[in-house]
């Protein structure tokens, strides 16, 4: 259910007869060899509510078979963008293109897509079987084909023992599997997921995350997934699209975004714990190098192309890219505010003089008490420097001041 329709609505993306899909199959396409071949493109897509523009001319190409994750903070436009692709929201400008066809005027029921919602949207008075079969029955599909599809999907999702139960007799994870199964039985051209795991507890989220990754490997179809949880994004996606205030900040593979963020927003958003970001002023150093003056700390670096004395910069270092060293070899020293001992790893939270609190990650058990000083050295090859506007200058510095790697 789209949230604006009654349970009996036959125009909604959940339940409507899928004429677009039948035309797609009639054209000779096959889903038995790795899933449907579906490409989705957004060309200068805009969305406004009255005078307020919330999506600002987004260009995006989702290639066939990809698992693409839209990630960003609350209010960034990720769910709105997903609903635009689904056909549940009209565009204000630009085009939505599915397999080469502009579908701006095509209703949700005819786009050949299946959507899985955060709220499960199951019919409480129907059994699991009826919930999964309902949309197919509305399309007048033969009963034998309906039974085959429902049982195949239930077996794939390991909910076949629960087909005669009603939703109230299921756990949260089982209900979400039913919602996913209802999408699978439609044999959609692409799957759209709108924060499907956000209602689950932490342990079940991890389990369902693995199951979704396995499901994509088995089905091979195009999937677009919305979440505010960057851990979900990193673990599920082939491509992550980071959104902020209705704009794409960066799109790429998880490790591309992790290792080479284009700006401070992506650097601070991708990664858990987040990258440590500190403001500094560049000064001339010895042998043509650069000294970053951050609070009362001085970090000596090789020359960096694009950084001149007097420039304001932001430098970033991830928690695992700092080494605890002797004081004479350190870039900064800081007292420990808090230690988190997790057995196999340790997190130190420290506040250098004149700087915000930073996070340090150490493998294994590192006993250190509150108030003790630690001396930290930044690994130059993974040190990030951004200009005053937050745009990247360099992701990693080699011994000569060029970009590392």
UniProtKB/TrEMBL annotation:
SUPFAM superfamilies: MOP-like, P-loop containing nucleoside triphosphate hydrolases. PANTHER family: MALTODEXTRIN IMPORT ATP-BINDING PROTEIN MSMX (PTHR43875), MALTOSE_MALTODEXTRIN IMPORT ATP-BINDING PROTEIN MALK (PTHR43875:SF3). NCBIfam families: PRK11650.1. It is a peripheral membrane protein. InterPro entries: AAA+_ATPase, ABC_transporter-like_ATP-bd, ABC_transporter-like_CS, ABC_transpr_MalK-like, ABC_transpr_MalK/UgpC-like, Mo/tungstate-bd_C_term_dom, NA-bd_OB-fold, P-loop_NTPase. The keyword Acetylation does not apply. Signal peptide: none annotated. This is sn-glycerol-3-phosphate ABC transporter ATP-binding protein UgpC. It holds the Pfam family TOBE_2. Coiled coil: none annotated. The keyword Magnesium does not apply. Keywords: ATP-binding, Nucleotide-binding, Transport. Residues 40-270 form the ABC transporter domain. It is found in: Cell inner membrane. One of its GO terms (molecular function) is ATP hydrolysis activity. It comes from the Bacteria. GO terms for cellular component: ATP-binding cassette (ABC) transporter complex, substrate-binding subunit-containing; maltose transport complex. Belongs to the ABC transporter superfamily. SMART domains: AAA. The gene is ugpC.
